[in-house]
Amino acid sequence: MQTRPLEDRFGRVASDLRVSLTDRCNLRCNYCMPAEGLDWLPTDEVLTDDEVVRLVRIGVQMLGVREVRYTGGEPLIRRGLVGIVGQVHALDPTVEQSITTNALGLQRNAAALAAAGLARVNVSLDTVRRETFLEITRRDRFDDVVAGLAAADAAGLGPVKVNAVLLRGTNDDQAAELLGWCLERGYELRFIEQMPLDAQHGWSREGMITADEIFARLAEKFTLTPAVEPRGSAPAEKFLVDGGPGTVGVIASVTRPFCGDCDRVRLTADGQVRNCLFARHESDLRTALRSGATDEEIADRWVVAMGTKAAGHGIDDVTFLQPDRPMSAIGG
Ligand code: SAM
């Protein structure tokens, strides 16, 4: 089978595929979506398990994809998740599969996911205070997340990574507390700068907590030194905490963009390729899939879709326009 890279016009090659398995979520994080939720995709527009596996197969076997991260919405609410992971593992066990999840239900599924071939989990957790968790997510499920994290660790889905977003006036005073909690449990914490991807369009540059503020907050309790390992295409800048071995990462997508090293491509739950989280254009693979296109034809479309990838996301540019779809629909 012919392999060609998913290369854009700036020479970046995408080998890390983010697959959104659903736009639905069982939390309502206030910086992501409104309390009442969103107009979810109609079921018949969402790719079936077989369609997902076919596109991943094309990505892996024909286009050089080496990592697959399932996301959403909440990927654990997709019934076929274990089966999808198992099928992808069977077609190429060297492809690293992971999920980005809020960990609700992970306690139940962690062992099955590990057995199917899942390598790692990234769990989103913005606070270790139950009341702040309820305030942010609008659901009283903190204990389930803690249990999900422990189950993932026990199932060997590690190193378990925790992703956190700091929100001014809500949890920005809790950065060091969250880091201490993660270090105690051996979880790798990464702070992510809040990006203009909320359904409510409430993000503002002034309102977001910057990487510099995160460092200042952490410095109140910890000493950070840059980790020596090369960053490569990893979005997180990594630091040793108090000399190590514990680490913390900061993903400064807004104030220190890393677009030049981006190796990601995204597939939405309804089968659209997005060459950037902030792309304003999508390429429809679902219609091709459902109208009898061959693997070659689908691969061709995918390659063409990558060609238009912009040099950078341009959040700091005056002409920046927030994408039409929010993070939960694109796949975070
Ligand atoms: N439900 C899964 C989860 O909670 O990880 C996957 C989807 S969620 C959209 C993925 C990640 O995006 C979460 O870590 C969440 O905190 C983050 N996120 C959502 N909106 C964001 C925003 N506007 N800026 C930065 N990160 C955001």
What does the model show?
The structure is a single chain. This protein is an alpha/beta fold. The protein is 30% helix and 17% strand. The chain has ten helices and 14 strands. Helix 3 runs parallel beside helix 5. The longest helix is centred in the first third of the chain and has 15 residues. The protein is globular. Bound molecules: S-adenosylmethionine (SAM). S-adenosylmethionine binds next to strand 5 and helix 10.
Low-confidence stretches: none
Number of helices: 10
The chain-level mean pLDDT equals 96
What characteristic shape results from the CA principal axes?
A: globular
Widest sheet, order of strands: 9-10-11-8-7-6-5-4-3-12-13-14
Reading the helices and strands in chain order gives EEEHEHEHEHHEHEHEEEEEEHHH
Largest sheet: 12 strands, mixed
Strand share of the residues?
15-25%
Radius of gyration: 19 Å
The beta-strand count equals: 14
Brief overview:
With 332 residues, the protein is of the alpha/beta class.
Q: Secondary-structure map with pairings?
A:
Layout: E1 6-7, E2 13-14, E3 16-20, H1 49-63, E4 67-71, H2 81-91, E5 96-101, H3 106-116, E6 120-124, H4 130-137, H5 142-154, E7 161-164, H6 175-185, E8 188-192, H7 211-219, E9 224-226, E10 237-241, E11 247-251, E12 264-267, E13 272-274, E14 283-284, H8 286-290, H9 295-307, H10 327-330
Parallel strand pairs: 3-4, 3-12, 4-5, 5-6, 6-7, 7-8, 8-11
Antiparallel strand pairs: 1-2, 9-10, 10-11, 12-13, 13-14
Helix pairs in contact: 1-2, 1-9, 2-3, 3-5
The structure holds S-adenosylmethionine.
S-adenosylmethionine binds at residues 25, 31-32, 71-72, 74, 100-102, 124, 163, 165, 192, 194-195, 197-198, 327-328, 332.
